[in-house]
UniProtKB/TrEMBL annotation:
It catalyses: N-(5-phospho-beta-D-ribosyl)anthranilate = 1-(2-carboxyphenylamino)-1-deoxy-D-ribulose 5-phosphate. It is an enzyme of class 5 (isomerase). Keywords: Amino-acid biosynthesis, Aromatic amino acid biosynthesis, Isomerase, Tryptophan biosynthesis. It comes from the Bacteria. SUPFAM superfamilies: Ribulose-phoshate binding barrel. This is N-(5'-phosphoribosyl)anthranilate isomerase. The keyword Glycoprotein does not apply. Pfam families: PRAI (PF00697). Pathway: Amino-acid biosynthesis; L-tryptophan biosynthesis; L-tryptophan from chorismate: step 3/5.
Length: 211
């Protein structure tokens, strides 16, 4: 099980979260987001992959940001086409394509993206493209028809730990590659509580998840 900490903003906080050794750290490059990142990413350990989050951005804008910040991957939260995903893959980016779920989802809509992205990310459908702070009905994933690994996102926090552990034991979680953590661990927008994150990670480890 991998961990991704997303919505980072503050340099000192970024460095403190990096000490927890997450697999991924996410930086939002969507100007309408309250967690929009417009600073410089500090030097991070090589094993932490830096992921840029975008919403309906152009290929040139995305690749410009990737090159500027030396990102290892992109997370696409909008209505990005399979063609754009393929372009980004061909430019040596790891591509995470996001799909929003509430109570139902048509998994046939994933088919055009099967060969042009590396991971899916399932988030909660809400007013914003992401960061809505609540979970979706994970039982919807019983109908997941792909074998592509996915990130589980949307309102995951300490209070959901028991439900999360139960979900991870079920067959529909077999392709769950990573947990995406954000708003439920914040003391302020973009500012993560490292004690809460460490406690959450320790609980996963105590339940035999190698995070």
């Amino acid at each position: 099980m991998k961990l991704k900490i997303c919505g980072m903003k503050n340099e000192n906080n970024i460095l403190n979260v990096a000490k927890l050794n997450p697999d991924y750290m996410g930086f939002i490059f969507y100007k309408n987001s309250p967690r929009y990142f417009k600073s410089v990413i500090p030097e991070l350990p090589k094993n932490i992959k830096k992921i840029g989050v975008f919403v309906d951005a152009t290929f040139d804008y995305i690749t410009g940001i990737v090159n500027k910040h030396n990102l290892q991957g992109v997370q696409l939260h909008g209505n990005e086409s399979p063609e754009l995903c393929k372009q980004l893959q061909d430019s040596n980016c790891t591509v995470i394509k996001v799909f929003s779920i509430k109570n139902t989802f048509n998994f046939n809509s994933l088919e055009p993206y099967e060969d042009v992205c590396d991971y899916y990310l399932f988030d909660t459908k809400g007013k914003q493209p992401g960061g809505n702070g609540f979970t979706f009905d994970w039982s919807v994933l019983k109908k997941y028809s792909s074998i592509k690994p996915f990130f589980l996102s949307g309102g995951i926090g300490p209070h959901e730990l028991d439900n999360l552990l139960s979900f991870l034991k079920r067959p529909e979680a077999i392709f769950c590659h990573a947990l995406d953590l954000n708003s439920k661990f914040e003391t302020n927008l973009g500012l993560k509580n490292t004690d809460k994150l460490k406690a959450f990670k320790d609980q996963l480890i105590a339940n035999n998840y190698d995070v």
